[in-house]
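Figure-free illustration: sequence to structure, shown twice.
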Amino acid sequence: MKKKKPTHSVFSNFAWSLKMLLKYSKAAFFITALFIPINIGLRYLEIYLPSLVVSEITNGQTLTHSLLSIGIVMLLIMLGNIIVQALGHIRNSTLGIYRYKMTALVTRKQLSMFYQTYEQKEVRDLANRASNATQMWDGVQPLTDIVYNGFGMLENLLGYILFGSVISFASPWLVPILTVAPIVNILSVKAYNKWEYAHRSKMTDLNQKLGHVEELPDDFAAAKDIRIYSMASWLRECYRDLSDQRSKWDRNVVKKSFLSRIADLVVILIRDGGAYALLIHMFYSGKIGIDEFVLYFAAISSFASWVGGIISCWNKANTVSLKLCDFRDFVDYPEYDGSGIAKAVDHMNTVPEIEFKNVSFRYDGAEQDTIHDLSLKIKSGEKLALVGLNGAGKTTLVKLLCGLYRPTSGEIFFNGIPLSDFKREDYYKLISPVFQEIRTAFFSLAETVSGKSTAETDLEKAETCMRQAGLGAKIDALPDGIHTKLNKKVHENGTELSGGEAQKLMLARALYKDAPLLILDEPTAALDPIAESKIYNEFNVMAKNKTSLFISHRLASTSFCDRIILLENGNITEEGTHQELMGANGTYKGLFDIQSCWYKEDMEGGDGE
């Protein structure tokens, strides 16, 4: 696997974090910075106190003088620790707010990223790693830890300089002895971080698979299939296999991490042992007194901790920096958007004309086009049906029209204006689509229809749209009517919609939006024949003063449309009214006859009984 270098350095990520910290939580920035002088001051007082006690005793000071001197230092240490504790709680709270705001950046990007880009696996994997960077895993929280370790580096460097100055008075050899040895630790940890970063894609895939299998037992929609098709043992086997792979990975991680820590222990023995041996030799040779010995002994211990702190903060900063690279790469991922020359507001009250001009589209990695050199004009106010076998390119064409995909070549026009002239978010205002895939959340029926909170919803309009979409009997039967919440797992008095009811709700949402272009992708696939017939009868009312595109596999349901387009292999092969296409005796008629013969046989079989 080709190894890629991190996109940002540790220093770049720390500088970026400071910038974001000042933007989203100034209090966290200044409180964290305030820790530096307070902690250094406390550490000095702590090594100075034992030396002061020895000095007061050996120099024959009075008891009052000794108690006063020692008491003042102890009081300062106590006050300093109280301040550190108080500031720590405040800092954690402000950094928590900062983390939530940074998490919102990932969520905002996921919700607004250009659909075609977000559909790519590598982008979704990156989004997954960016989301992980906002969470805590094994005690590591990259967004806040880069701040802790960055400021920790500054604190330890200042402590290193100040305490190094103190122990250099004892011997100039102590500073290099305590400084050079830890380089081994830095190199070993750097090698471990490099290995972990190079293998993160494999870990992402494994975690996603394991997470999916873990969620299946809680997925109520899958419960019936799991039981009826006896899938439980197979899923348990999958879980065991993935768990074994994860355990093997974790053992490998622990092994490599342990080896890097062994080097650290060896360095500590050499470093501290040599320093203490030198100090003891100086005391016995009479070069320093007992009070100085105590001061330097404590200073060496503290200096070693500053050196260790520098290494620890650097290593931790390297670790979290690699994860922060994924966060920044996703948040800053280049976006496609239109020029913004055209404005949706100028077209909201029009009955649009749509034109595909020599449009081709090829999916990333595909060997051939899904849509190839397609030209099509949908007249203003026309009701156009798009039919064809699975894989013909119908859904791809709809996504192109919705602005979710960009043509590989060619152009799509809305009222004669290229779609690329509209900002994406602005163009979305002009279309009301109902897609095949239906997902509802835990909001009320009215909120789901409007896509807004209850306070911002036109409740009368929402109810009218729901009744028009065929949900009148449903909302009349619910105690809270249109205010009934969806999802029984979240709301005790919530409701669960059937597939057909959910499809009607999505149709109501499209009607509520009331955009000039109505797109219905298999809008009746989950409906019973009576409900489907009612929707068709209402379709002329729904499509009034709109241009509409209707996609269906049921050819009998397209006869109410002004024109029917048959798509095969990404090309238009037949077009006309239902009667014209039946008279042409082509592919459309063949498909229609195949479907209708089953209806006739069912009816004849029923009559025979």
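We now fold a second protein in the same way, so the two outputs can be compared directly.
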Amino acid sequence: MGSRSKDREPFVYGPTTTAGRLRPWLWFALLLSLASFTVFGSVAADPGGVVVADNDDTSLFIWWLGHGAQVIADRLGFGHGQTGGFLFTDSMNALGGGVNGAWNTSLLGIAILLAPLTWVAGPIISYNLLILAIPVVNSLATAVLFRRFLHRLPAFIAAGGVGFSSYVIAQLGGHPNLAMAITPPLTAVAILALLGLGGRERGTGDPERGRGDPEHGAGGADVAFPRASGPWHNRRVRRIGLGFGLLLGFQFYISTEVLAGTFLAALCFLICLAVFAHRSLTVHAWMRLGFGSLLAGALALLCAVPLLVTMAGANAPAGTIRPHGVWNTDLLDPIVPAAPAWLSSGVSPLPRVMDIDPAELGGYVGVPALLAALVILIGLARRSRFRLPLRIATATGLLVFTLALGSPILLNGRVLAEAGPFALVEAVPVLNNILPMRLVLHSTIALFAVLGIGLEWSLAHLRHRRARLLTGLLVVSAVCVVPGPQTAHEVTVPDFYTESLAEVIPTGSVVKTLPRPLAWAQPHADEAMVWQAVSGFRYRETGGYFIGSSPNSPVIYSAPEDELDALLHASVFEGADMPDPTGPDVLAAIASLRAAGVDYIVLAPEAPLLPGDDGDYEDFLDTAVGAPEFAGEGVRVYRLDQ
């Protein structure tokens, strides 16, 4: 076992140089990167040609990543200057007054960070790099939290479980804004730091002191939550508050829904801290938290002013974005395998109120993990040195998961209770747009905190049969929840958009693309948005997939149909014949497009989801508009402004 001094040094004092302290984290990041490349191997092999998703929300985020980079290029003087603003633009929905990006998950914060890569490699590669990076950064952020009460190895393993959890990997199937989860664990870190709780202190955590002692455990981080001293407004508190504020301000420009969910989870966390750690929390500790939080909130709101002002502007949704009672976590979701777990058949067998995108089904953690958490709680929550973090993590996780059940509460798709606690959240403006399913992110973090505590105890007591059994159960838990390799589908981009578009369509022209973007939860439904993005936004698009409003509807999810869309919609989706291209209705529809300022119609005849039979749209437009001005490279371009 070595001498007392040799045992103590790596756990208490650690490396004395910056390089020495960073080295384990760099190795951890490397292993996480290898794991991400394994899970998303298809993307890594062809980052410019495929995406992982069962929907086409990927096109939406590729569009916004490209848009943010192009706006910066315009501001710096090497763009074409036609893209519009960061948060409000008429690059899509050009006939309907544009899009309010503050109400859409524009990923502006990330788009700015990735802009140099987007300029060089394009928005599809930027998107896929983001997908590969998110599990890594999530794990690193969670490890910062877990290191406040765990040794490095169990903290890293448990944090990796969060980064590659069902929630994160599922949401990466089209929702990187929701999968990006650095703010929740770092918020917990800020709260603990402001309260003066957790963390390792020099001279504590003697491994010899705690070996085999159920009261003290096996050494390492002192998790008895000692009282912290010092003025409530000292420099350290101000520094933490400012850093916390910048984090929250950045989160405004990634996902306001994750920010709102983090607020709810933080409330649950604070309630549990007040209940279980009240003996360690002095009045000064609460004053430090209050002062630091006010400082952070003020800075975050200052950062968010452009977003908040834009939210109150044009084309904002005028009602609740999603209906309540649909995106509820079923009580069986944690134990019934669903994608992306390798044990899953690919879809969840649980009945739903309506079909739900598989990217939302991230509540699975597995029976072994829940059983292990129960064993850990029973064995360590009373006398061990882990009792406080264990009780707090367990209670917080249960509270948040109760909210994630939504209202009503469902069991195997059937209503078990007509109303749940989440009904209180749905009654609060702004917060009523949170989908309860997405709150499992926070309960997942709490669960892995419990599992990490159990892992630390078992590794320190491996000579005992109970510890070996717990270690085996934890291994089985990991095997059951590990994600399998994620399948990808091809992104179809006609060559025209990267080769000849600039020569055929003048910059700033208004273009109607067929097939137009549609708010459908299936691949390729919105690829016209990708085409616009890879072209460098040289034209404005009449269509678009977004959240907004129109004079006829308080909430819309795509650009309203024009007269030509309505005619084609009736023929394709209602079983009627294609409209007569020389008939008065069609001629009037074409005239209305010209009058509205549409310059070109661009048809992609081989697009995957173009409705109708082969040749229908070419024949129709050739007769209704005239011969195309350009035909080739996967498109036919019809000029209207003549």
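Summary for the second example: The longest strand covers residues 509-514.
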